[in-house]
Amino acid sequence: xxxxxxxxxxxxxxxxxxxxxxxxxxxxxxxxxxxxxxxxxxxxxxxxxxxxxxxxxxxxxxxxxxxxxxxxxxxxxxxxxxxxxxxxxxxxxxxxxxxxxxxxxxxxxxxxxxxxxxxxxxxxxxxxxxxxxxxxxxxxxxxxxxxxxxxxxxxxxxxxxxxxxxxxxxxxxxxxxxxxxxxxxxxxxxxxxxxxxxxxxxxxxxxxxxxxxxxxxxxxxxxxxxxxxxxxxxxxxxxxxxxxxxxxxxxxxxxxxxxxxxxxxxxxxxxxxxxxxxxxxxxxxxxxxxxxxxxxxxxxxxxxxxxxxxxxxxxxxxxxxxxxxxxxxxxxxxxxxxxxxxxxxxxxxxxxxxxxxxxxxxxxxxxxxxxxxxxxxxxxxxxxxxxxxxxxxxxxxxxxxxxxxxxxxxxxxxxxxxxxxx
Length: 422
Ligand SMILES: Nc1nc2c(ncn2[C@@H]2O[C@H](COP(=O)(O)OP(=O)(O)OP(=O)(O)O)[C@@H](O)[C@H]2O)c(=O)[nH]1
Known about the structure:
21% strand, binds guanosine-5'-triphosphate, Diguanylate_Cyclase, Nucleotide_cyclase, CheY-like_superfamily
């Protein structure tokens, strides 16, 4: 797990930072008051990042910054005031960024900056530039921002790398390069990587009029003129990555069911349509419907019913965490189980059905049992509606058999495997 060191000598500020960190950071956190305490913590822990106060009672001259940097811990500085000389000095020392503590919002800004930097960890960035020196300078800055960095010497090499590695999320591309220039590269990349999947920052030292606008019109998110200041580079990259993260958050929000946090019907249908586009897939689709759920609602009220639905979602996640699990209707769920035959799938879901029936659900401390009926179909049809129709028919039969039952639809090859286990 990622671990962050926060060094701050003011009790009040430390309390504010603790509170904000608990809200915005999901990492191991250590707090230190002094240089001495920081040294001890750095000896026994490995930190992903440090957020440090520039001056401490036992380190008035930025010694704590020198300490974290000497241990190769990317460091963000908190400072109460800063003049041009110390700003330059600090940036030359190699800090990632600094935040001036001049109002309450600056603490929130600092914690959000840490959070954004932590999100960069494991994220791949590609630099396309024919100048080895430029690549080295940018690599150093990106590594400080926790990116995993790759380099390409020209547009064609960059294009090949982007085609084969969809985990690259940031492209920095120079304009003037041999074999394929920055414009051609951006145009080609946008044919297969959208703005919701890859962010691009164009670069040029040429100073040609209109270069920035052209880069953006061809599909770049931003533009930087060389030579740039480290601070500007850092801000532009962070801001561009923020766009990507915001789009991802909005998409995730739109794809999730509000009550249970599972994927919703819209996401489920989109995923299935995409998967089936290239022909049948070797998965089984199970529709799981709660039995007599109306009675639970009638007895415990709608909120009681909601509580059961969230507990059901937890059980599904525990058992089928690696599969696509969705809430496709009020009390109906879908699980896409990859790689199993219909017989194996039925056995797996029947086992789940049986454990589900034994599970104790709680509504405001009151215990109750609940059962499921399940219909399973092989994803061997051309469209989702056909797969759903077969799974639905099996589910209907499971209900008709008396519920608490898992039924499999006949496969195309007529290996009928219908069994009721009640
Ligand atoms: N609490 C709660 N109830 C919901 C939600 N969505 C649908 N329902 C309820 O789910 C119940 C479904 O009832 P029915 O379709 O009659 O099915 P059932 O009672 O489960 O009976 P069978 O499916 O035949 O076993 C209805 O009472 C709906 O109001 C929801 O989001 N929360």
